[in-house]
Specification:
This protein is of the alpha/beta class. The chain folds into 2 domains: 181 residues, Glycogen Phosphorylase B (Rossmann fold, 3-Layer(aba) Sandwich); 151 residues, Glycogen Phosphorylase B (Rossmann fold). 46% of the residues lie in helices and 15% in strands.
């Protein structure tokens, strides 16, 4: 008897989503048909194609090539092009990841077409609606039929909003990826040799969130702190951040600071090696906060709040915001706790999500 396989349309568009998709694509394709849609939100080769190559992610079936732009323009173009794909493919489920404009566009399109939605990394809340990501994740959660939560905190957040149906505590697929690729990063990455870096003798910094890059005061405070750390700082520079450093006339300040080493964005394997061997990580990225936690490296978050409260609770993450003095204070107070709990699951989140999709009748 020929039983038709479930068809899943997975929508990705940005670096964190590529990482999450890597283990889940493998799990889904064992028993289901997956159509992979890349919105083109991240289109720089170092932030897109390199991730697909390194992590063995299947080539997208559709590349929508939306590119950059304001929230309205970018999201509108995504919705127009995603809708066309969904009408053509008629999937059983649309899978969205995280909290980007790609997430929002995919979830809203599917919900309006009455196609069930699954949200990977559901239930996260920063409680700061000034963040566009917070709006995206709230809307995606309220559009979703299956909500795959990485932590118990995420489940509790959804319950507070009255969302209890279709909620599943699966663990974090980024933790799956960290376990899956740790050995490969160790053997394949030569980034430390290329940059002439010694383990434990540098800080790693990433900055990309609008609350920091769009605000000259915030970005200036971070730049001043990086130049005052008194140790080498490796700074993979997001294309948008590079542009805004110039607009805010802060790029000259960095050029006059020899301890800060600006490099182009790197692939996943190189990033893992940079994180694992840093003395500390400074970031406004939610994904990098977790990756530092997985690597047992102290993190200073350049925001006043975080969705990943477990990393703070366990002592591996300090919230410093973008104030120069607060950042330097956090660096002086750095410590590495002796133990770590496992709030992000057992490394089999992708398998659990695939099993839930396969057995749940949400059509």
């Amino acid at each position: 008897m020929n039983i038709q396989r479930k068809k899943i349309v997975s929508i990705v568009g940005a670096r964190p989503q590529f990482i999450k998709a890597a283990p889940l694509c493998r799990a889904l394709r064992k028993t289901m048909t997956e159509i992979l849609v890349h919105t083109g939100q991240h289109y720089d080769d170092n932030m897109s194609r390199l991730f697909f190559d390194e992590m063995g992610i299947p080539r997208p079936d559709y590349n929508l090539e939306v590119g950059s732009g304001g929230h309205g323009l970018q999201t509108g173009l995504m919705m127009e092009r995603i809708e066309a794909v969904l009408l053509k493919e008629k999937p059983d489920l649309v899978l969205v990841y995280g909290d980007t404009n790609s997430t929002l566009a995919g979830a809203v399109d599917a919900a309006k077409l009455h196609i069930p939605v699954g949200h990977v990394e559901a239930g996260l809340r920063s409680l700061n609606r000034g963040m566009p990501e917070e709006i995206n994740r709230i809307v995606a959660d309220h559009c979703s039929d299956l909500l795959f939560c990485p932590t118990r905190t995420a489940v509790d957040n959804l319950r507070k909003e009255g969302i209890v149906r279709g909620v599943h505590l699966t663990g974090d697929v980024m933790f799956d990826a960290s376990l899956m690729f740790a050995g490969l990063a160790e053997t394949k990455s030569s980034i430390l040799r290329k940059l002439n870096l010694a383990p434990g003798e540098y800080f790693l910094c990433t900055v990309h969130r609008a609350e920091n890059t769009d605000d000259a005061g915030n970005l200036g405070g971070i730049v001043e702190a990086l130049c005052s750390l008194g140790r080498a700082v490796v700074f993979p520079l997001h294309p948008r951040t590079r542009k805004l450093l110039s607009i805010h006339r802060l790029d000259d300040s960095l050029k006059r600071c020899p301890s800060v080493r600006i490099i182009d964005p790197v692939g996943y394997l190189d990033m893992v090696q940079l994180e694992r061997n840093a003395s500390a990580v400074l970031t406004d990225s939610g994904g990098v906060q977790k990756e530092a936690y997985f690597c047992r490296v102290p993190c200073i978050t350049l925001r006043n709040e975080t969705e990943w409260v477990e990393t703070v609770r366990d002592g591996w993450n300090t919230l410093a915001g973008a104030d120069t003095r607060a950042i330097l204070r956090a660096v002086r107070g750095l410590r590495a706790p002796g133990s770590r709990r496992r709030p992000f699951g057992d490394g089999r989140a992708a398998e659990k999500i695939a099993r839930l999709i396969l057995k749940k009748n949400v059509v």
